[in-house]
Input
Amino acid sequence: MKSIKTWILVVLASSLLVACGQGGGGAGSKKSKTLDNTKKAGFVKCGVSQGLPGFSNADASGNWTGIDVDVCRAVAAAVLGDADKVKYTPLSAKERFTALTSGEIDVLARNTTWTLSRDADIGLTFVGVNFYDGQGFMVRKNSGINSVNDFKNGISACTNTGTTTELNMRDFFNSKNIKYEPIAFEKADEVVQAYDAGRCDTYTTDKSGLAAQRTKLSAPDDHKVLPETISKEPLGPVVRQGDSVWEDIVRWSLNTMIEAEEYGVNSSNASSLKESENPAIKRLVGAEGELGAAFGLDNEWSLRIIEQVGNYGESYKKHIADTNILPNRGPNELWTKGGILYVPPAR
Amino acid sequence: MNFKNFKFDLNNKNKDLIPQVLTILFLVLVVIYFTINAQNNMGNRGISFGFGFLSQESSFDITFSLIDYDGSDSYARAFLVGLLNTILVSSIGIFFATLLGVTIGIGRLSQNYLIAKAAEWYVEIFRNIPLILQIFFWYFAALRALPLTIDSINFYDISFLNVKGWYVPRFIWTNFSVFFYSIILAIISIIFFSRYAKKQRDEFGKQLPTLYISLGLIIGLPLLTFIIGGVGLSFEIPVLEQLSKTIYVYKGGVSIIPELISLALALSMYTATFIAENVRAGILGVGKGQKEAAASIGLTKGQILKLVVMPQALRIIIPPTTNQYLNLTKNSSLAAAIAYPDIVLVFAGTALMQTGRAIEIISITMLTYLSLSLSISIFMNWYNKKIAIKEK
Output
């Protein structure tokens, strides 16, 4: 008797709890819930790759470095005052968007290509570009292939699944009317192994990725990247749709790094430039204007980014150029120096 | 029912009923809560829900497909390609796992010390290594061990094995339907003949050579169609072609990709160990007295195995083996690791990433596996019932 009554009570109580719980779900309004939650938690929840040298890669002691990681660090410096207050979540290509839309992470900085369908369709907003990349092909040097025009019917190509690479590959081979064998792996390491073993004749992905993955092959010098670029791959950080304040914070954290390089402000000279003659520089280091207030931050947010993370040029040099991944900046040079890095003015 | 006298009596039937009703109510509420919560959150985050994407163009290619497919087909068709590939590798896996499992299981009971020990070692090694490692082992070991296309292992100039796959001749049929119907006809005749043979045996004690006549029918009838049915068969043999200085490829014929071979190999070798143990348990489970009794009435060794031991052993073997078939089918989803385009890689992988429709795609995939598993279950339960002892 007693046990049954207890039982009924438990069930009724649980149903009640469930009914009450319904009000709890849901996020996002005009005020930035993400910003409030981040301040409360004390760290920025950032999604990165599972290991791509130069972009986001963890060393033996678990410290993350790379130009994508620097975006997370910049946001943490702006919002929390300390670039190290980031919780990194390594994600596969497959998991990344779900992790972001479900709220597991708040910023996705994982060499992700900005495309219309991703931006418009699946609850994501791209905030900018931190690396202009393009898809290329790697082949064996002895293969006799010197250009994509040497590919013939029956060629087999290894790549990653679920990336724009897979789609570009099809567009490319279709436009050339070449029948090819696509072999798509879930993880980059398996692609490298399969290509290394001779399963496929060519390995295709973003050129920066090819340069980074080549170092993992058993004999890197036996392979080369073909000169052609078959696609535009603007890689950049992504946030959830619906929190425009948070979106602006991430966008302008990235823009600040690029703008700082343009005005010659770097991690070592930033604080001394408070007395600069140039109002653009003064705004950048927080000595003029009230720019931070627009997103509910103090006025030194941009100074902290430059001091703690550095400007874009410093970040590129440290992670991409000095590690010999792509020593030549190519399109990732400032617009004033022949590249296409151009951001709206911070004013 | 007399409502006047109805009392809310906890001591009676209601005692069992109320907790059950409440539990169901609770479960329904939980499901409703999760649905509403998911809808709210998706609405807040600007994600729409719907299955319209299934008819959109997929725009990605798949290495290996049993039906015609290219990137201009829809996501629904890509789903079908993945599903068929899952069914293909599971069927191959189940076939070889059963064959190998029964052999090893009987081997473990062999009087021959070497055979029994070898079978035991096989079981202990392969069932104790995680499957994903075995899949990687067979895939990358095979890739490393196999020669490049130009140095292919040559089987009598008609079949070639290399790192890009196993190339076998393609059958080109003329009047295939006649050949196909002849096989159906042979099978039907065999069923009728064995019924007739059984009747002869039961009523008159006459033993007809069922096996030889069946073999004759299944081989003879189709052969006959070649002579009088106008059926023709020719082979398209793979030919080596040079694409560049060091890149060669075989064209024509059928190419069996190394991903399929290594996945099927790993799945069957792993599952075979469990089936072997089931078979051993089944045979050991039949009492010694049964065999002795059968021998005492003059049955031959083969007849004892076929008529006395196996029918009883199967009752023990089938239920746990059904589990193994289900496991094998579900384990085939590890295919994604080595680029075999099964439903997980193609649909829950590529299609999910291209469309971003996680909830829809994962639910479809889960439902698909559930249906596959239930179908296997239903078939095996039917078979189990069929061979169960019928009380007379």
Remarks:
- The radius of gyration of chain B is 28 Å.
